[in-house]
Every structure is written in C-alpha cells, then in structure tokens.
Specification:
- This is Amidohydrolase.
- Keywords: Hydrolase.
- 46% of the residues are buried.
- α5 packs antiparallel against α6 (261-282).
- The two termini are 16 Å apart.
- 30% of the residues lie in helices and 28% in strands.
- It folds into two domains: 5-177 and 296-381, 3-Layer(aba) Sandwich (Aminopeptidase), CATH 3.40.630.10; 180-293, Alpha-Beta Plaits (2-Layer Sandwich), CATH 3.30.70.360.
- The protein is α/β, with parallel strands linked by helices.
C-alpha cells in the first residue's frame, strides 16, 4: 500500500474539514481553494484552477510519452440540512456533504500523494476535481472550458461510493450504468379572478390535476430494459398563497429518465404533446423549459478491462451488482471525448442512503478507492 498510517490520518482530517464546510453546485470556491492548498506540497507538474467554474485539475507528468489518464471527483455538496451528531458535521445550515463528494475528493488527494512520491514513468495523470455535478452542469462546463484541451485524456475513470453494497466491494459492468435524465419545468398561465367569482377567470387547477398523474403514467419498465422510461413529479405550485384569489398560474416540475440518451428525445416529445393537448383543451397558455440535463453513463469495454485487472490485482471483490441504476451522473459527459468507466464502491449494506440527512462518507473507503485507481495507473503507465 502506498499510503502510510500518517497519510491516512491527514487525509481523514482533510475529508472531515471539507465535510464541515459544504458548498453547493456553482459555489465551491472555498472547497477548491482547500484542494489547491493541499496539493501545494505534492508538487504536481501543473495545476489548473477555475476550470469550468471552480474546477481544479492537477497534472502529473511522466518522463516518456504515453497515454493520458483522467480521474474525476466532485466538489459540490447538497442543499439538504444534515442531521448528524458527528463532530465533523456540517457547520452550514441547509447544506451538507450527503453524497460523499468530500470522500471522492479525498481519494484523488490520496492519489496525488502517491504520485508525488513515486512518479509515473511515462504519459500523464490528470486529477480533476469537478464542480457542479449535482445539477448536471459541471462536466459540460469543464469540457467547454478552452483550457480543457491542455488535459484532454485518452481514458477517464471515476467512482461513487454506494450504500447498500457490501463495504469495500465493487459493482462494475460494461455498457450503461447510470440513466439519462432531465428536469422538465411546465408553466401554465390563465387568468386570476376574485375567489367569490372564479368563473370570471381561467384557472389551471383542473389541468394541473390532470397532468400530474398523466405525466407519471409515461413511466414504463425498469433498467436494463432499453425502453425504460420514468417520469417523476417533483414539485407543483398553484396560484398565490391567498384565500381571496382564484388561481391564474401553475407550475409543475417533472424529472424524466431513460436508460440511454437516444430515448430521451422520444420521452420529451410525448410529455410535450401531452401538455400541449391539455392546455389547448383548457384554453391556457404554457411554456416548457429543461434543466439539470444529464447524459447517460456508459462504461467502455476497454476502460472496464483496465479496472477489472486493477480490482483483481488488489484482490477487491467485484460483480455487476444492480447495474444499471436509475440515478444519473454527469460523468456521462466524459464518454463523449474518450473511453470512460465508473465503478461503485460499497459503503456498507446498512449504511444510510445517499442524499439522506444522516448520511456520512465512510473514511475507510479512501484507502480502497485510491488503491484501485493507483493500480490502474501503474499498469498503464508504470
């Protein structure tokens, strides 16, 4: 193992410091600064900051030419109030690292520690701390940053801790592993009226009541079925908070999911047609916009082969688990530029679920995750 007990003490302290100071998507400036400060004594060949927002990329160069391997972690936390008694619990009301991105960031710092002591013989390793994963905007912003051309990889890898999976075991497979998703915001507009004379206005009440179950009924099947679709109503609001006004406006938020990107256009078309018909019949105006757009994650066979060899070498048990999963991950954007693969590292079968208010990343995963990634690096670059 390339990490000492002293390293693990420092890495755990780093992770818990990140945990105390969560920043949500687009606000990760101080988190990024903490990463940069921790990298300073490790002397990477190059550090890029403010990449695609608050992203950080550390590059470690070998002496001889060779392939470029990128390893990605996330910087952002969630807008959820943490309910924990841990000494390192969030100090920010309404925000918490309840997905483990603080732990994933620490795994990359562990890799940087190892690479600083035993440089690679050839090629280059890029460690990317990516902003804004939770809202799906971060990976796209990083790829669109002109400076990304300096670190464009030949292969990209990532991991996510996974409660419900036995601690320290891995779920990995070729093909789709995370679904495509996007948020559909539907705005309905009619005309307000006095609550004593609702007939003089045009209320969207009946239409919103009709659309919520109708949109949900677009759901079909389950992964890994190629025709899987899921529509989940996540938010709805009708009118003003007043007893004297019959409503004139309403809004519905729906999350749409498909197994692969190619199916998303069809699902959006069906949902839009349903909304269009409903508002025409009611005489309402409407507007539709899309948010939090995630591409599906698909593991490339050649990248999976490298991970499987690393897992076998490190004697880490792995299987396909329950993949593909319904949840989305914006690491899927990386497959548009190079072969990529993500694996899922068990946080414990009874560990609190991701995004739960009592979730906390298990620090024991840092050593395991770093060891797996380092095995990929040493096998590919020496």
């Amino acid at each position: 193992m390339f990490l000492t007990d002293h390293d693990m003490v420092k890495l755990t302290a780093f992770r818990r410091d990140l945990h105390r100071h969560p920043e949500v998507s687009g606000e990760e400036r101080e988190t990024a600064n903490r990463v940069v400060e921790a990298l300073r004594p490790l002397a990477p060949s190059m550090v890029l900051t403010d990449l695609g927002g608050h992203g950080v990329a550390a590059v470690f160069e070998g002496e001889a030419p060779g392939p470029c391997l990128l390893f990605r972690a996330e910087l952002d936390a969630l807008p959820i109030d943490e309910k924990s008694q841990a000494a390192h619990r969030s100090t920010v009301t309404g925000k918490g690292h309840l997905c483990g991105h603080d732990g994933h960031s620490t795994i990359l710092l562990a890799l940087a520690t190892g690479l600083s002591r035993a440089p690679i013989a050839r090629g280059r390793v890029v460690l990317l701390w990516q902003p804004a994963e939770e809202d799906g905007s971060g990976a796209a912003a990083v790829l669109a940053d002109p400076r990304f051309a300096e670190i464009r990889p030949d292969f990209a890898y990532s991991l996510h801790n996974m409660p419900g999976l036995a601690f320290g075991t891995v779920a990995l497979k070729t093909g789709p592993v995370n679904c495509a998703s996007r948020g559909m915001k539907i705005r309905l507009s009619g005309k307000t009226a006095h609550a004593s004379q609702p007939e003089t206005g045009l209320s969207p009440m009946a239409t919103i009541s009709r659309l919520m179950p109708a949109l949900t009924a677009l759901s079909h099947g389950a992964p890994p079925a190629i025709d899987f679709t899921l529509a989940t109503v996540t938010h709805a609001v009708l009118g003003e908070q007043a007893f004297g006004i019959a409503p004139g406006d309403a809004e519905i938020w729906v999350t749409l999911r498909t197994l692969i990107d190619d199916r998303m256009a069809e699902l959006c078309e069906k949902a839009e047609a349903m909304v269009g018909q409903a508002v025409r019949e009611a005489g309402l105006e409407h507007a539709i916009s899309y948010h939090d757009v995630f591409f599906h994650c698909e593991n490339a066979p050649e990248a999976v082969t490298h991970l499987e060899a690393a897992l076998a070498a490190e004697k880490v048990a792995f299987n396909e688990g329950n993949l593909p999963m319904r949840a989305s991950e914006d690491f899927g954007r990386l497959r548009t530029i190079c072969p990529s693969a993500m694996f899922f590292l068990g946080a414990g079968e009874h560990h609190p679920a991701l995004h739960n208010p009592d979730y906390d990343y298990p620090d024991g995963l840092t050593e395991i995750g770093a060891r797996i990634f380092m095995a990929v690096i040493r096998r590919a670059l020496g």
